[in-house]
Amino acid sequence: MCDGSTLGAAPGNVGLVAERIDTLIILGAGGDLTARLLLPGLASLLASDRGEPIAVIGVDRGDTTTAQWREVVTEAFSATPSELGSSVAAETRFIAADVSQPTDLERVLAAATGRVALYFALPPAVTILACRALATLTLPEGICFALEKPFGTDLASARSLNRLLETMVPEEQIFRVDHFLGKSTVLNLLGLRFANRIFEPLLSAPNVEKVEIIFGETLALENRAGYYDKAGALVDMIQSHLLLVLALATMEPPASLSAGDLHGAMSQVLRATRLKRTDGTSSRRARYSASAPGSERMLPAYADEEGVDASRGTETLAEITLEIDNWRWAGVPFILRSGKALGDTRQDIVVTFKDVPHLPTGLTGAPGPARLIVSMKPATLDLDLVVNGQGDPFSLERAVLHTKLGAGDLSAYGEVLSALLEGDTVLSVRGDIAEQCWRIVEPALAAWRAGTVPLAEYPAGTAGPADW
User: Fold this and answer.
1) 63, 149, 321, 414: least surrounded by Cβ within 10 Å?
2) Is residue 386 predicted with pLDDT exceeding 90?
3) pLDDT per residue as tens digits for the range 418-441
4) Domain coordinates in residue numbering, the chain
5) Is residue 241 among the annotated active site residues?
6) Which residues are within 8 A (CB) of 381 and not within 5 positions of it... i.e. 6 or more apart?
7) Does the domain made of 23-177 have the CATH classification 3.40.50.720?
8) Which helix (H) or strand (E) holds 412?
9) Marked catalytic residue, from 179, 241, 358, 402
10) Residue 264 and residue 184: Cα distance in Å, rounded?
């Protein structure tokens, strides 16, 4: 990505200039991600006090016309209307092109004016093809790349893609997108941890029994088989989103929130992170079967969803148990779990503290150790404590301290786009961090491919397999 400074560029390309992005080119404009997340995020940015005029060009294969594309953009902008948004929607253009072909991409870049940001709203394998094609071209001055997660398809491809990008533009012009870093609640972790003396000393191995990071959805496949059946829950959610949340929740205090300091602290803790069992068996996987008769919401089995290849054995629920080999966290299990078609929606970070070493004789009814729960959606903080009960002060009970966390003025994708267009690298995923995330999950993926970890099943609409 770009930080507004002048940096050396790769041969044949010019470095950064201190200018804002003038043209946003969306590769993969006809895809689900563009309509469902990217365009609404842009609408929220344009409607905010941070919005500025920008030209938008949609690019995809097919026979879509500019008039049809404008209808798509207008519809996506309708949820967050603004005068600026209407102006951008009225002037946006569409170009039919094959992003794997250098001549097509050259034609797309020639249609842009000013400083350009290329947004790769594409599957990872297609993104790699597009980057290889772009590497043969002379790129516009100061161009920025925004690449959607997952970055690559495995550790080897992520490393290869990083090395390729290094020959094209400087790291500061590469924005590896993970919209979880744009969630205000995730960023609230920084203030919660580093501005409160009451929490930070407690977040360490002597005090913490375990940490769980959970992202559960009631939504099922929702017509996304083209992407999801090749990715699965582990790659789609844990390898990217939840490992970045883990890094923010466990890293050492950075000197500042500059991109260099923040990314350095995140990278350091991820380098110390590994699966609890390095053979990959400290992981579990499952996929949903059809809803039980009489369920409130009837869903077909994942294997029967349109576009799914059941022989792939793609999981819709994944769990891994990690450990962090450093002084602060040695021996603490970190459980990351994510799944679809579950009974409840959960987006929680749950820190379970160790029980007290000794409870004075005479106190009864201890309900177990305290927990700190940070919920990403809704954005709340709960700290449950053990206190003397009402009526009988010698009988203990649990009390919960609850507060709402501040919400940002933009959606997560609005924050990501604002950062891209303004040149703020804090919300970007640095190249070495992307590689570390793949390294951490590789043993689990290998164990699953080898059949070492069985693929369990759970009825859609339940909490998961009964024996979990």
Assistant:
1) 63
2) no
3) 999 988 878 899 999 999 999 999
4) 23-177, 181-408+430-459
5) yes
6) 192, 372, 373, 374, 375, 402, 403, 404, 405
7) yes
8) helix 412-422
9) 241
10) 21
